[in-house]
Amino acid sequence: MDIDAWVWWLIGAVGLGIPLVLTAMPEFGMFAVGAVAAAVTAALGGGPVAQVLVFVIVSVALLAVVRPIANRHRDQRPQHRSGIDALKGRSAVVLERVDGTGGRIKLAGEIWSARSLDPGLSYEPGLQVDVVEIDGATAVVM
Q1: Distance separating alpha carbons of residues 58 and 36, to the nearest angstrom
Q2: Using CA of residue 83, residue 84, residue 88, residue 93, what is the dihedral sign?
Q3: What angle do CA 6, 49, 68 make, to 5 degrees?
Q4: Number of CB atoms found within 10 A of residue 58's CB
Q5: What distance in Å separates the CA atoms of residue 55 and residue 39, rounded to the nearest whole number?
Q6: Dist. CA 8–CA 119, nearest whole Å
Q7: Mean pLDDT over residues 26-40, rounded?
Q8: How far is CA 90 from CA 63, 113, 119, in A?
Q9: What is the DSSP letter of 137?
Q10: pLDDT tens digit string along 59-98?
Q11: Beta carbons of 108 and 134 less than 8 angstroms apart
Q12: How far is residue 116's CA from residue 110's CA, in Å, rounded to a whole number?
């Protein structure tokens, strides 16, 4: 049983696709695309030298072009804050007088205990305050 060269290239492409899925390394995907291009070359009647050249050229071109673009996009991802970090800098409404010793605010739809950043300042109910930090279960406001 004699298998055509293009079938071997497709088997190679699948073989390169397996580590792509298991390791999430996009380089394997680029080599798999190169193997598919070599399979097309073999199916169109290209010789072994042409098949290998197509494989190498397509793989290297993808590495040279796609990889820097992917790295640039990876570095530009927006940083999403979560948990208490997401509450810092938000506005809140004073529900009970807030001073250096305590009080209550409504922050992100929830009622929080709060104290003022400056112990000498106090904020009356209905005022808008900004959350400076979260100290345990207490919002520090100004």
Answers
A1: 10
A2: positive
A3: 80
A4: 20
A5: 9
A6: 76
A7: 93
A8: 43, 15, 20
A9: T
A10: 999 999 988 888 888 777 667 777 788 888 899 999 999 9
A11: no
A12: 18
